[in-house]
Structure to design on (133 residues):
């Protein structure tokens, strides 16, 4: 089975791993692409967490994520972790990958794209908006 097909991306303040394969999601902004995030000032850094949800898979995959502006240029924001190797087994019907961006500075309001890569190949991308409150 290939890399899991990512179907959704939740954007929030933080995700906490809990017992029994559960996640605690705090400060949910919404689900891309139907999402606009209000920021107080563009000059100040924002912390965002991206939770990618997908179907089953089989294998070990090296994931990384980046945020791109409307021209397709990656923002100089470093996610935590910068990349993550995730073993996925077919016994589970779903998969999850989480990346935190602790200090993103958006240069302007408008559309941005989150891109998830597996083994350096883009496997999911979705747009979200940034607006000034």
């Amino acid at each position: 089975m290939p890399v899991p097909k990512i179907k959704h991306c939740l954007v929030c303040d933080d995700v906490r791993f809990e017992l029994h394969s559960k996640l605690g999601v705090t400060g949910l902004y919404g689900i891309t692409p139907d999402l606009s995030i209000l920021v107080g000032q563009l000059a100040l850094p924002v912390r965002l967490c991206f939770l990618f949800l997908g179907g089953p898979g089989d294998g070990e995959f090296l994931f990384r994520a980046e945020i791109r502006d409307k021209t397709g240029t990656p923002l100089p924001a470093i996610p935590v972790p910068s990349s993550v190797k995730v073993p996925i087994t077919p016994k589970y019907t779903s998969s999850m990958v989480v990346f935190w961006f602790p200090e993103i500075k958006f240069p302007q309001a408008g559309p941005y794209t989150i891109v998830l890569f597996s083994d350096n190949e883009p496997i999911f991308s979705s747009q979200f908006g940034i607006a000034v409150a």
